[in-house]
Design goal:
The complex is a heterotrimer. By secondary structure, chain A is an alpha/beta fold. Chain A folds into 2 domains: 136 residues, no CATH class; 108 residues, no CATH class. Chain A has 10 helices and 7 strands. In chain A, helix 6 crosses helix 8. The relative contact order of chain A is 0.13. Chain B is of the alpha/beta class. Chain B has a single domain, classed as Rossmann fold (3-Layer(aba) Sandwich), CATH 3.40.50. Chain B has 4 helices and 4 strands; from the N terminus they run E-H-E-H-E-H-E-H. The relative contact order of chain B is 0.25. The model of chain B has no long low-confidence stretch (mean pLDDT 92). By secondary structure, chain C is an alpha+beta fold. Chain C folds into 2 domains: 184 residues, no CATH class; 131 residues, no CATH class. Chain C is 31% helix and 24% strand. Chain C has an 8-stranded mixed beta sheet. Classes of the chains: A alpha/beta, B alpha/beta, C alpha+beta. Chains A and C meet through strand 2, helix 6, helix 7 and helix 9 of A and helix 8, strand 11, strand 12 and helix 10 of C.
């Protein structure tokens, strides 16, 4: 399977379709994966593809605007391309998507790749990328879908319990902003949290500021989050950030029958409205 | 906060309808709870969810966003966007333990002084029932 | 003969200090995450912690810290400094973290010293724990320390059967141990582990030679420019100051900042002096391997703890960079022998 990716990538580089192919290579721990920007055929030989390839590589398209680039995408990652095309951030004809069907990826952090599925994978419903120019099949038994157990557990708590739960989570946030940096939907030139005048949140690490940061960040991704789960994966202190995103995704789907990134045409829910709707929810 | 002073309400009122509605309540000598701190905004569509979350962080017990009735927006459609936005913000707030009743979106026109006073009064009652937030984030 | 404290005696000693008013800051599990926290009782200490996710700099140089508060009241302005006037024990530092504290001392205690850092530092005793095993990302022996090095510590503990061998490493440590009640025992210390050794000897010179090398751009390709590496690092000390006004009061707050953050070098008018990904990436390592040693006439500003290696979401591996610099350097600028 990785041979198919390598030969396609080489072909794209050789015939000048793209200048760079973004794929995965083995990390320095010898067990997990890391992104590799390949500009030559030799570099392409380092490509790998397996269930430790957790990163959403399509996020890097924001760093390569206007430059012809091929990128290896799993189904969740592929939605990034539709999102960014829809939001006029990248040009579709500058991107060659090497799609990989995905049975699910595992929890992989430096030094160890477990057998355990990532939380994003047990809730995922896409098996084939939403957009691709070339398709490769990743073998493996598809992980069992369990619905949204964590979300359901949250719903059974009282507001007081939920408040305490989130206070405990946000207390240990170190405000490294990795959740933002890794997110394909977070591309504002100046993020509200970095804004100085007025300073809405600022960089102070304190529970109230941390909470405003996480709530507003999640809200800015409402109807835009493509559920790649990267924010949760990169969090150095293990804050379950996808819970916020999943909650919003579930609400958005319920209210507006919309899931972002499945195509590049449908306008996102906060760019449109219907005259008769939602009087009960307001 | 001290409940003797009643719950703290932050009100974001659109310039064209709801702010004028609050004015109308005043000039008509109708009484409404003095706990509301009114902030005039150009349109309910201007109210960034950040303003609401920040209000709660700074100690508000409730936030009222009020604008023109659907179809009457001075800018044609700002209130329709606001309706979608706050329709979604309420369940998010609830999810992190801020009861969704603490955020209200209401339509108040410039002639509805009476409605404005009723909205604020009933909101205050609701917030008293929920109790104070003790300046929680 | 060695001084020996059983596990229970160690915790009792710490609880005694705590009851005497000393703040005990130690590795604990916070929702399953290993972090330094002030512990309410010594039994909450995670004695088996290897390397915490965030370094113990959190205590001496907090993520956010109010320097002072001003209040306007009755026509005058009151300024209150936020001082720490207690005593603290920073417990469970591995030798890399002790070196990390020393490398923080270098810039913060250089005159004019940072008042709030100096205050905490002087009032804090460092109790270390030598390493009985190392992790694959450890490389302390490459940066002038080792798994059983007591330098920069006040007290050093070594895990042995049933408890710890305890040794004072400074006068401050000897005084701290006054309440410890150790037993005298004939014990042999375990053989320390041997972490990977990297070619760090010639780094500043190599770095200068490869300053404009294309290497940095290629390395920066996959960097997402989050602040994880800087924030988990025991030796990164950049910060920002902001004022937080509220009503008649305002706080001046110092918070961690990172050279990798988007706005770090953005000037008024919008120009970014380190605009490219490559320049940003290079900065972090140039600071550690070139600017810091040159500015302070010091060793490298790296403690070899490997936290950034483990925490980086895209595997930017400082060990690999050191080896790469050596490799590229040898092939392009010679071996360094004149």
């Amino acid at each position: 399977m990785v041979d198919e990716i390598r030969s396609k990538a080489k072909e794209l580089l050789t015939d000048g379709t793209v200048e760079c192919v973004i794929g995965y290579e083995r990390a320095t721990d010898g067990v997990t994966a890391r992104p590799l920007f390949a500009y030559t055929a030799e570099e392409i030989d380092r490509f790998i593809m397996d269930n430790t390839c957790v990163h959403n590589l399509a996020r890097y398209l924001l760093d390569r605007k206007g430059k012809p680039t091929a990128v290896v995408v799993k189904p969740c990652d592929s939605r990034t391309i539709n999102l960014l095309v829809q939001e006029n951030q990248i040009e579709r004809d500058k991107v060659f998507a090497i799609g990989v069907t995905c049975p699910g990826v595992v929890e992989a952090h430096w030094g160890e790749a477990s057998d355990e599925a990532q939380p994003r994978c047990v809730t995922c419903s896409l098996e084939v990328p939403a957009v691709y120019d070339y398709l490769v099949t990743m073998p493996g038994e598809r992980q069992t879908r369990t619905g949204f157990p964590d979300l359901e557990r949250m719903e059974t708590m009282s507001p007081e319990e939920r408040r305490e739960f989130w206070e405990r989570q946000f207390e240990r946030c170190i405000r490294c902003h990795a959740c933002r940096q890794v997110c394909p939907g977070c591309y504002c030139p100046i993020c509200f949290v970095d804004q100085l005048d007025p300073t809405w949140v600022g960089i102070r690490n304190a529970p109230p500021e941390n909470q405003v940061w996480h709530l507003i960040r999640a809200f800015h991704l409402a109807g835009r989050c493509i559920e790649c789960g990267e924010c949760q994966r990169v969090c150095p202190v293990g804050i379950p950030l996808m819970l916020l995103n999943q909650k919003l995704a579930a609400e958005v789907e319920g209210m507006f029958d919309f899931r972002p990134g499945l195509d590049a045409e449908t306008l996102p829910p906060f760019a449109v409205f219907k005259k008769e709707e939602l009087e009960a929810e307001r | 906060m001290d409940m003797n002073g009643g719950p703290k309400i932050v009100g974001f009122l659109c310039n064209w309808c709801s702010y004028a509605g609050a004015d109308m309540a005043g000039t008509s000598r109708m009484s409404y709870p003095a706990n509301i701190r009114i902030i005039r905004v150009p349109c309910s569509g201007r109210v960034d969810p950040l303003l609401v979350v920040k209000s709660f962080q700074q100690g508000a017990d409730g936030v009222l966003v009020a604008g023109c009735h659907p179809g009457d927006c001075h800018y044609s459609e700002g209130n329709y966007y606001a309706r979608r936005r706050f329709g979604l913000l309420r369940p998010l707030l609830d999810f992190v333990g801020v009861e969704q009743e603490r955020l209200r979106l209401e339509w108040v026109s410039s002639t509805e002084g009476k409605k404005f006073s009723q909205v604020v009064s009933s909101f205050q009652e609701e917030l008293e029932r929920l109790g104070p937030r003790e300046n929680r984030g | 003969m060695s001084r020996f404290l059983s596990r229970e005696a160690l915790l009792a000693w710490l609880d005694g200090l705590r009851e005497g008013g000393t703040v005990v800051v130690a590795p604990t599990l916070v929702e399953g995450v290993s972090l330094y926290r002030q512990v309410p009782v010594a039994s909450e200490i995670d004695l088996d912690a290897s390397v915490t996710v965030v370094s113990p700099k959190e205590w001496l140089f907090p993520a956010s810290h109010t320097i002072f508060t001003v209040e306007r009241k009755d026509g005058r302005v009151d300024l209150r400094e936020n001082t720490f006037d207690g005593r603290a024990v920073l417990f469970g530092l591995h030798p890399c973290d002790a070196l990390g504290v020393h490398l923080m001392d270098v810039p913060f205690l250089a005159e004019p010293a940072d008042g709030s850092y100096r205050e905490r530092r002087e009032r804090t005793a460092l109790v270390g724990l030598s390493c009985i095993r190392c992790r694959p990302e450890c490389f302390c022996t490459s940066v002038d320390t080792s798994p059983d090095d007591p330098t920069h510590l006040d007290v050093m503990l070594t895990l042995v059967e049933g408890g710890y061998v305890v040794a004072a490493a400074s006068d401050k440590g000897e005084a701290l141990l006054a309440s410890a009640k150790p037993e005298e025992k004939a014990l042999s210390l375990p053989e320390p582990p041997a972490p990977e050794k990297l070619p760090t000897e010639d780094l500043p010179r190599l770095f200068r030679a490869l300053y404009d090398d294309g290497y940095w751009g290629r390395l920066a390709d996959r960097c997402i420019h989050c602040n994880i590496c800087s924030y988990v690092c025991p030796t990164c000390y950049c910060f920002d100051m902001r004022d937080y006004p509220r009503g008649n009061t305002a706080e001046r707050v110092q918070s961690w900042e990172s050279c990798q953050a988007p706005g770090f070098t953005r000037l008024a008018g919008g120009h970014d002096t380190r605009g490219s990904k490559a320049a940003k990436m290079r900065q972090r390592f140039a600071h550690k391997f070139l600017y810091f040693p040159e500015t302070f006439d010091s060793q490298l500003s790296c403690s070899g703890c490997g936290r950034c290696v483990r925490a980086c979401p895209v595997n930017i591996d400082i060990r690999e960079i050191i080896s790469d610099l050596k490799k590229i350097g040898v092939s392009s600028v010679g071996s360094g022998e004149k």
